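User: Could you go from structure to sequence for me? I need the amino acid at each position, not a summary. Structure tokens:
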């Protein structure tokens, strides 16, 4: 008879599912015996490569959650408005760098509209939350530094979710639905294939 193998417990996951206690501050919170800090993704890579989310979802001592919400109709209208705005900025910008960025943004928007029209591309809104955690405040700073560095290498920009730490925890927890307030901070229009292609098993 085969011996039963004892599975290793995931302490971080257990703390999220059934913490001993939770206390929220404006810019951090304690979850059981862990000090935590919720971050929201506010900028995504302009041209992500295949497997681009692999590094992010494997940051040590960090809970990560990304949600993709299809919303074709409103997004098409939003893309059109964004193209118009960026085209105007490109025409009036006095700084060459700002002009180039606006032109590229408008061009990317046009390309996405073309993909949607010709290929039936599914687009939606992507929201990301990261919560580094550690057993003490000094260790948390090191985990945060590692998390920020990894995000920077992937061209992701994050910021602390001030006064929204509870929302951050809810976003990574498996028993909560998505939060509209958090989505306002972190949402970005993205094709479904770009999101799915961010994982190596896709």
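Assistant: Here is the amino acid at each position, in order:
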């Amino acid at each position: 008879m085969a011996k039963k193998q004892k599975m290793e417990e995931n302490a971080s996951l257990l703390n999220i599912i059934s913490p001993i206690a939770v206390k929220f501050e404006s810019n951090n919170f304690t979850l059981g015996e862990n000090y935590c800090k919720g971050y929201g993704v506010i900028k995504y890579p302009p041209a992500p490569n295949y497997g681009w989310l692999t590094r992010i979802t494997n940051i040590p001592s960090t809970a990560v959650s990304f949600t993709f919400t299809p919303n074709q109709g409103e997004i098409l209208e939003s893309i059109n408005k964004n193209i118009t705005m960026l085209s105007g900025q490109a025409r009036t910008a006095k700084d060459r760098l700002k002009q180039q960025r606006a032109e590229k943004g408008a061009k990317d928007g046009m390309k996405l509209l073309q993909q949607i029209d010709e290929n039936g591309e599914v687009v939606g809104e992507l929201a990301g939350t990261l919560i580094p955690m550690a057993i003490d405040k000094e260790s948390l700073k090191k985990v945060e530094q590692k998390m920020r560095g990894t995000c920077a290498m992937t061209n992701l920009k994050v910021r602390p979710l001030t006064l929204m730490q509870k929302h951050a925890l809810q976003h990574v927890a498996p028993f909560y639905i998505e939060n509209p307030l958090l989505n306002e901070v972190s949402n970005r229009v993205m094709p479904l294939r770009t999101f799915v292609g961010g994982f190596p098993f896709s």
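One structural detail worth keeping in mind: The chain is about 45% helix and 20% strand.
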